[in-house]
């Protein structure tokens, strides 16, 4: 919460004005019962019409002042809350962009997106309220008791006893409430993650006929959310009956002792009326409390969830000696180990190899042998656990990651599209690309003729997650995106798997004509047969490296793979 | 570039808007939405009536309290009569205690009712979602759907908790208060009620403005949330292409728009409590000022002023509550509308009434002149004809976009055939229920989907009553066992949906194990082996061969080595079957297939 409240500083002027206006309102409301007492005791009891009219006008004037103050405060309070909401979202979004891939996966994207949306809205609502009523309610309670003392000390003592007791009860409920609402929030998260899974995996769920199973799963999660929610809300609902009971009894006591005071001449009727009026209003303020507590506890839970994201360290502290990469791009792995967080075994162990500028490197191995992981180490999507990766002799962890990645382009295993046009999706690789360059890249990816066959050609809108494109088309858009970047290092993570053989051949051909250093992860020897060097991985270890011909002669495993693929090709 | 992207953003905006705000909510619509919410609440009708009954009692008690306080004050003024005062004091204490108890009960019951309502709505929404066709999910953005399912439901939940009681109490107290006030002093009541026209006018002025901005805010929020979803799920691409700057800028544009509309929505809605409060103060001024004059003339007693000043608060408080809740209620109703929009979404083409569930299928499949299109203007499949005998393996070959996946989707009844017929064991599939059909089809999809749970549970998805031993057995068969045991917690490792810990191929192996466990009569392998390395693929192919034995299997694969053994190969191009036959027949034809085959073979042999 502290961290979030720090955002107020930007809006301290607005916040100050809003609080000041709130304070004016508060004073007006505190003065009202005293004016009332004066009207009763000096006006009505003494039969003085002029006093009634004078003080009546004063009351009216005060009301107008309070109205103006109240209305104006809305502008300032909204400015603070919307401003803070905006700033928090901005910082969150920016921060998330620089979190490491591992961190993002740990948070899970669904949780991050709720934090950015729901939680921020929660905070916004809380701040708006805080500006306008949160401080007012407790201040009014305190102010009311103080004012009651100025009216009649003996009777005010009753309030002085009742109010702190109620305060303590409220405080206890608040602490419990915060805990319970945090639990509710957790349950809500897991419910939402079932929703999300069902949105993403609907095809599988339908194929397996598992609607009933999913319904049950959801039902169970929903039920436990409901139970916790009920418990939390019921606790909160204790507050109002308790507070009302406390304050009402206090009022009865005021009347009872008031009658004694009057009989001994220690109090006047107007005073009693005024103190009862204060008590009524204090009760009203307490009434707002449970509302405030609920908002506070939700706000606090949200704030801590947001702070958690903001507090997690970004990928790397920008290195002071960060250099811009030369675009020679000779790459060397020096005893590199990588282990996924929480895993017991190394995904990659003791990898050492060297790649010359402009070479094409094939990476082969069984599923799970670490091919993709190896590829992701180069743009530092994952930081090495130990060892070094050098580009042109410079360890990559001394380089600014943006500068490092500027020279690279990667085509991931699972194609990624963004909503927008085809043009924009390709230009994602290079913001400054001209239409000519985009077309060239699309042509290299064997995609241009298809795009031209679309009604809007390059301006065709891609729906979210590319629903209107087939797997192969998505893959080719991703390839074109990489080509348009004109990278000095090209990383292909089995990126031609969804292409038919003809298309794949032509794409590989256009890659061959480029001068960049290329890494090709593949399962097919045909994709890497012309590579300058093939790295053969097995369970995260580099078991052999060399050209196709060399491996074919010396490596039995490679020979076996080749034979099997060749056999399949010529079996019939 | 910037100008251009702006223009396009607006394009996407407007299409999003159509999703988000299909219709402008009218008063009628609000009424019918509320009615539908009531239908859910009606399940706890009795509890609800009890709660309302208690609201009635608590409202009456809340009228009695201030009245007796006023009487007590008058007693004080007229000189102290200890015994009369004592009676009133005892009565007051009794009233206040009962009031608190009644209040607690009404809230307790109302929470039960509202939470049950939300529970049922959520369940209904979720189970309805299960019944929607695939097309629905493919045409909606998941971010926007998520927002409906989560934010909107949460909104409804919160509003139901507080608002219903407040509305009921408010209404009753309002009527009661005005009644008692009239009885005490009609003239002073008239003066007090002067604020009502002011109130109505003020509220009208405000809601005219808030409504507009809330709608705009909702639209901007939806847009922003969609963007967040998208960039989060594509975060690796953002990083790799160093597009952080760009997405941050685009996000900030959307963020600013949210801020702007949010600002005005909040400013105007922020007027409401202040207006209420000021009217409160005004009525207090009137009661004290005018009441003072009346009291001087002996028309009323001081006690009446006390009672009135307490009543005036009671009388404006429900209005105040209502006003405080107004935005919440409005946005909850809007949320409920969006939820009902989904619930009203037509279910996946239901089975024909004549459709029967068939307990087991043999697996003879025939497509007769089948045509289908996703969009009415482009035909995805044109006049597809083929016949498959029980137990045969059929390979679908062709360039991407040729319609291979669509054929198997039609077979699983994901989509309705447009023209032509599909027969399974000589039954038209429109006469077979979806569930009995799908129960007998196992699938392994190109994008393997895993649930955020343990490996064991992910495999068990294929057959829910499978024992742990069976799961290990199929995992071994699918060659997944060895890598699973390497995971931190073996079979109990919780996989996350983003799939960070295991490779694409490993995910695929789990999917295959899942399909093996299902033990289906027919099998669909949609690019199932595209990401599996050759060594594993050989082993898997052996396992699959066993699995496919005696089962009709459809295989989609780009790599021809996996399709050579098929009994029949269908070569598709642009939604049409251009060739069919087995491997050697097609090679002899020297057509499309032969060309495709030689190009792949050539590259391997090179």
Automatic annotation (TrEMBL), chain A:
<keyword id="KW-0813">Transport</keyword>
<dbReference type="Pfam" id="PF00664">
    <property type="entry name" value="ABC_membrane"/>
</dbReference>
<feature type="transmembrane region" description="Helical">
    <location>
        <begin position="272"/>
        <end position="296"/>
    </location>
</feature>
<feature type="transmembrane region" description="Helical">
    <location>
        <begin position="238"/>
        <end position="260"/>
    </location>
</feature>
<dbReference type="InterPro" id="IPR039421">
    <property type="entry name" value="Type_1_exporter"/>
</dbReference>
<dbReference type="GO" id="GO:0005524">
    <property type="term" value="F:ATP binding"/>
</dbReference>
<dbReference type="GO" id="GO:0005886">
    <property type="term" value="C:plasma membrane"/>
</dbReference>
<keyword id="KW-0067">ATP-binding</keyword>
<keyword id="KW-1003">Cell membrane</keyword>
<dbReference type="InterPro" id="IPR036640">
    <property type="entry name" value="ABC1_TM_sf"/>
</dbReference>
<feature type="domain" description="ABC transporter">
    <location>
        <begin position="331"/>
        <end position="564"/>
    </location>
</feature>
<feature type="domain" description="ABC transmembrane type-1">
    <location>
        <begin position="16"/>
        <end position="298"/>
    </location>
</feature>
<dbReference type="GO" id="GO:0015421">
    <property type="term" value="F:ABC-type oligopeptide transporter activity"/>
</dbReference>
<feature type="transmembrane region" description="Helical">
    <location>
        <begin position="157"/>
        <end position="178"/>
    </location>
</feature>
<keyword id="KW-0547">Nucleotide-binding</keyword>
<feature type="transmembrane region" description="Helical">
    <location>
        <begin position="52"/>
        <end position="80"/>
    </location>
</feature>
<dbReference type="Pfam" id="PF00005">
    <property type="entry name" value="ABC_tran"/>
</dbReference>
<dbReference type="InterPro" id="IPR011527">
    <property type="entry name" value="ABC1_TM_dom"/>
</dbReference>
<feature type="transmembrane region" description="Helical">
    <location>
        <begin position="12"/>
        <end position="40"/>
    </location>
</feature>
<dbReference type="InterPro" id="IPR003439">
    <property type="entry name" value="ABC_transporter-like_ATP-bd"/>
</dbReference>
<dbReference type="InterPro" id="IPR003593">
    <property type="entry name" value="AAA+_ATPase"/>
</dbReference>
<keyword id="KW-0812">Transmembrane</keyword>
Automatic annotation (TrEMBL), chain B:
<dbReference type="InterPro" id="IPR017871">
    <property type="entry name" value="ABC_transporter-like_CS"/>
</dbReference>
<feature type="transmembrane region" description="Helical">
    <location>
        <begin position="46"/>
        <end position="64"/>
    </location>
</feature>
<keyword id="KW-0472">Membrane</keyword>
<dbReference type="GO" id="GO:0015421">
    <property type="term" value="F:ABC-type oligopeptide transporter activity"/>
</dbReference>
<keyword id="KW-0067">ATP-binding</keyword>
<dbReference type="InterPro" id="IPR027417">
    <property type="entry name" value="P-loop_NTPase"/>
</dbReference>
<keyword id="KW-0813">Transport</keyword>
<dbReference type="GO" id="GO:0016887">
    <property type="term" value="F:ATP hydrolysis activity"/>
</dbReference>
<feature type="transmembrane region" description="Helical">
    <location>
        <begin position="284"/>
        <end position="311"/>
    </location>
</feature>
<dbReference type="InterPro" id="IPR039421">
    <property type="entry name" value="Type_1_exporter"/>
</dbReference>
<dbReference type="Pfam" id="PF00005">
    <property type="entry name" value="ABC_tran"/>
</dbReference>
<dbReference type="InterPro" id="IPR036640">
    <property type="entry name" value="ABC1_TM_sf"/>
</dbReference>
<dbReference type="InterPro" id="IPR011527">
    <property type="entry name" value="ABC1_TM_dom"/>
</dbReference>
<keyword id="KW-0812">Transmembrane</keyword>
<keyword id="KW-0547">Nucleotide-binding</keyword>
<feature type="compositionally biased region" description="Polar residues">
    <location>
        <begin position="1"/>
        <end position="13"/>
    </location>
</feature>
<dbReference type="InterPro" id="IPR003439">
    <property type="entry name" value="ABC_transporter-like_ATP-bd"/>
</dbReference>
<feature type="domain" description="ABC transporter">
    <location>
        <begin position="365"/>
        <end position="599"/>
    </location>
</feature>
<keyword id="KW-1003">Cell membrane</keyword>
<dbReference type="GO" id="GO:0005524">
    <property type="term" value="F:ATP binding"/>
</dbReference>
<dbReference type="InterPro" id="IPR003593">
    <property type="entry name" value="AAA+_ATPase"/>
</dbReference>
<feature type="transmembrane region" description="Helical">
    <location>
        <begin position="164"/>
        <end position="184"/>
    </location>
</feature>
